[in-house]
Amino acid sequence: MLETDRTVAYSRTMHSDYRHAHRHSALAHGVKLYLRILRRKHILTKEMLTGRIPQHAAPVPASLKKRFRFTHHAFRDHGFWTVAPEKQKSTQSETAVDEVSKHDFMLSAHGLRLAGKAYAGALPDDHHRHSPKHARLNGVAPISLFTGTHDVLYPDILELRDRLRRQAHPVRYFEYPQMFHVWPAVTALHEARHAIDQMAALIREG
């Protein structure tokens, strides 16, 4: 549930967290959650897949399509949105990331690189579980990206946005000047409340 001064929006959600790529646990976790929903007969007409790391989400629709054909429309039609999506093994210059990192007091480039190595494990650099730039995005639901220009991940987010646009993949892009990593969590900020309003609107549209 997202609640703001003007609206309350509800959506059954599946959230991908920081499970290790090399253990392939994100997909298994997502399937377990979906099965739990089905067992409780909470099959809704609107479903939103949310997550901060799209590389978890990208393989899910095709995988679930094979087992749950009657529910695949939920992923394809209603989409997912993400705030500050992390892309492991960045192809952007280290200089660009380090420059933005100077302005981001929430997340550092050095810490991000250490976390990325731990997350990736022994998988090759071009594995799709590292980054959506290595994943097949055909069949993935429309994507909404939220980012701030002072987010250390900003250069990577721009790369992801541009790739989606080149492939004519449905993407809505929301950029906030001078906002840091996951700024919507700091709800005292006007920009955070505005972003939350936009997310609530996306859920209602879905």
From TrEMBL:
<dbReference type="GO" id="GO:0016787">
    <property type="term" value="F:hydrolase activity"/>
</dbReference>
<dbReference type="Pfam" id="PF07859">
    <property type="entry name" value="Abhydrolase_3"/>
</dbReference>
<dbReference type="InterPro" id="IPR013094">
    <property type="entry name" value="AB_hydrolase_3"/>
</dbReference>
<dbReference type="InterPro" id="IPR029058">
    <property type="entry name" value="AB_hydrolase_fold"/>
</dbReference>
<keyword id="KW-0378">Hydrolase</keyword>
<feature type="domain" description="Alpha/beta hydrolase fold-3">
    <location>
        <begin position="85"/>
        <end position="183"/>
    </location>
</feature>
<protein>
    <submittedName>
        <fullName>Alpha/beta hydrolase fold domain-containing protein</fullName>
    </submittedName>
</protein>
